[in-house]
Amino acid sequence: MAKRSVLGLYTEEDSAADALDNLREAGFEEDECEILTGVPYPEGTFGEAEPEHHLYRWPLIGAACGFTIALLITAGTELAYPLVTGGKPILSIPAMAIIMYEGSMLGAIIFTIIGIIFESRLPRIFMGAYSEKITEGHIGVTVTTDETRTDAAETALVKAGIDGEIIRGWE
Amino acid sequence: MQEHTQLSHKQINDDLLVDILTVPKWWLPAVAFLSLIVLTGLGAFFFMMYHGLGVTGLNRPVMWGFFIANFVFWIGISHAGIMISAILRLTQAEWRRPITRAAEVMTVFSLIAALHTPLMHVGRPWRVLYWIFPYDFSRGIWPNIRSPFVWDPSAVGTYLIASSLFVFVCLIPDLAILRDRVKNPIGKKIYAQLALGFRGTPRQWRLQIIAGILLSALVLPVFVSVHSIVSWDFAVLIGVEGWRSTIFAPYFIIGAIHSGVSAVAMLMALSVWLYGLDKYIKPDHFDAIARLLIVVATTWFFFFFLEWVYALYTLESPEIALRELQAFEWPYGPLFAIFVITSFVIPVPMWLFKRVRRSAALMFWTTILVNIGMWLERFLIVIPGLLRRTHMTFDWGTYHPSIIEILIVVETFAFVCLGMLLFAKVLPLIPLFDIKEGMVNRRLIKVGRRVIPATIREGLPHHYYQEKH
User: Fold this and answer.
1) In Å, how far is B456's CA from the nearest CA of chain A?
2) Which of A40, A42, B341, B347 fits as disulfide partner to B459, beta carbons 3.0 to 4.6 Å?
3) Under DSSP, is residue B428 helix (H, G, I), strand (E, B) or coil?
4) What is the helix (H) or strand (E) element at residue B451, kind and residue range?
């Protein structure tokens, strides 16, 4: 069944927190409700669950990949054209270390960026119920649920004192 | 920081997006003028490419001239952008909020400007590919990774990619604001695509905050490595007096920070004058950056002093001769005096006065002086060292930059200014969400008989409340 989303807008932090409480009382799960804000509030401002993520693994994986690629490029190019200079070894570890360091850092940074986008659940193709007022300071509480339960969600949102009308959208 | 103006989110959007949603009167003439300089510089470059490097002043013994001095200068400027942004983010300095974006964007444009000059310096830029990428399968010739000229592109390339991605990730929330505010349907569509569907959920904000800190922590080691590697272009060479110095890496890094932080202060003053951002960039911000500059400039001067002490302490005649050339002989002596006076002797004592530190105009002019001095410092490292390499009579010569080199160097300055202006026309130079977060987290509290703004960093964890209540 297609999911619908409904959104209530609030001007005060407390009203948004009340709306979230009302939704929990009405039987909605944590993963069905979301707070939308135009600014990062301190965690738990609205009594929402702390989001879990695995972002810290991404730079480590990226660094390992970058290191490996840089090792293969440096060692590979030196071995492919083994030019002896001043009787020094073909594989020059100090020179390789510089490029392997840069490779590791580049891999770590690229993977971190991918990780941030992936863990943020982006890119999001359908915006669902959304209002441009959110980036002007309003706080949105959105519920994404089955079509049959949207009335209950709207009642819970209105009860907390929404600003304006309920906004509806498709997921 | 005591100065504080509480603004609504809508007002912040209106103030900081006004120059994107409308066109200031001065904008088009400024862009046209800078574009003309850039085109002239590119024309000079194509002229040089057609006629060869003979049209420059480069000749034995000075084969590195304006181009390489300019390269080192722009790499230095690029450093402060990310450095100041990363350090201030990591230390959660509140005064960072209005300046991080401009500093990060300046890094990107400065790096591109820095890459201009060595590419042009080689005369046939496409040949650079042969020494960077292992791709010439037909001839079986591969990059010599033992050469600093392979380290340079790997470090600068990493830094450019990292800082561009850093700017993009930190822009996503502001792109979402633009998506919601722009009326033009094409513009709206472009901003919507770039915003990736950002809606401002707690997860997205949490990751945005962690991204700022994590990327700062990752970019800082890259920043240190880039200028170290640039210094090794000189320091690993044998036979050029004044170059083969063990302290070159930290000396170059601190010099880069000195010129770069000064450039950020200049940018702050320009933002106040051109975009009327005095509600966001206040005397307190200039005061804070000037205090930082005093520390940075003094540390840089210490390294500069050390470099001279190590050179002179040995009493080796070639080193003494080089230092005499740098400091006392025409035309380098007067340039050396200007360098020391403008980069340290004038600005640092001035910054000791609060009235100077809190003045946008005085900070602008003192930091301009620093950058004039720091450009000359790079020039005085590159040219006099090479001038002394006159072992054979046919090597005897001197260096005079040609008009072609001057035009190309001027082009890099115009390019950075043009890049910043174009960026500011389509994207905000001050991070809106960061400013708004500062407003949300700031509360007025009463301490004794005074009411002062205090900043809440973060709440206590959930389990604390559960245990206490």
Assistant:
1) 9
2) A42
3) coil
4) strand B450-455
Does B48 reside within a domain?
yes
Asked if B436 is an interface residue toward chain A (Cβ–Cβ < 8 A), one would say yes
- Residues ≥6 apart with Cβ < 8 Å to A45: A13, A17, B459
Which residue, among B13, B107, B146, B458, would best test binding to A if mutated, counting the most A CBs under 10 Å from its CB?
A: B146
- What are the tens digits of pLDDT across the range B134-149? 776 677 777 888 888 8
Chain B residues 358-397 within an 8 A CB cutoff of chain A: none
Domain ranges of chain A: 3-39+137-170, 57-119
**DSSP line for B92-114:** T-GGGTTTHHHHHHHHHHHHHHH
In the predicted model, what is the mean pLDDT of residues B438-464? 67
Q: How many domains does the structure of chain B reveal? A: 1
Among B104, B207, B208, B456, which would you mutate to test the A interface (most chain A Cβ atoms within 10 Å of its Cβ)?
B207
On whether the CB atoms of residues B87 and B400 are closer than 8 A, the answer is no
Q: Specify the 3-state DSSP secondary structure of A12.
A: coil
Spatial CA neighbour of B111 closest among B144, B152, B139, B142: B152
Between CA B184 and CA B178 the distance in angstroms is 11
**Does the pTM of the predicted model rise above 0.80?**
yes
Cβ contact, residue pair A106, B229, below 8 Å: no
Q: How many CB atoms lie within 10 A of CB B213?
A: 13
Cβ-nearest to B146 among A39, A92, A125: A92
In a domain, B418, yes or no: yes
CA angle at A158 for the pair A153 and A163, rounded to the nearest 5°: 125
pLDDT at residue B253, rounded to an integer: 93
CB contact under 8 A, B200 and A120: no
List the domain range (segments joined by +) for residue B233.
9-280+400-468
Residue A36 has pLDDT above 60, yes or no: yes
Compute CA distances B48 → B81, B131, B132, B401, whole Å: 32, 21, 23, 13
Has domain A3-39+137-170 been given CATH number 3.20.20.210?
A: no
User: B458 — contact with chain A (CB < 8 Å)?
Assistant: yes
The size of the A-B interface in CB pairs under 8 A is 193
Contact call for B440 and A41, based on CB within 8 A: yes
Q: Is residue B87 part of a domain?
A: yes
Q: How many CB atoms lie within 10 A of CB B183?
A: 7
